[in-house]
Write a structure and sequence with these properties.
There is one protein chain. This protein is α+β, with helices and mostly antiparallel strands. The chain has one domain. Helix content is about 20%, strand content about 30%. The chain has one helix and four strands; from the N terminus they run E-E-E-E-H. The longest helix is centred in the C-terminal third of the chain and has 13 residues.
Length: about 60
């Protein structure tokens, strides 16, 4: 039996209904990403180090 992952939405989500963003979750050893408007659809997964590099690149912009 697998443990359900906990999804997190950015604190920078838009105002209003707050569904215009992505959600991320730790699904060890990967990071899972999904669209908050359609959470039951496809989930993308990335190796944690690759996702961390992606976030660092975004912060550098």
């Amino acid at each position: 039996m697998s443990t359900p992952i906990q999804w997190r939405k950015s604190s920078y989500s838009c105002s209003g209904d707050g569904n215009a963003c992505v959600e991320v979750a730790l699904d060890h050893p990967h990071i899972a990403v999904r669209d908050s408007k359609t959470p039951t659809r496809a989930v993308l997964t990335f190796p944690a180090p690759a996702f961390a590099a992606f976030l660092r690149a975004l912060q550098a912009v």
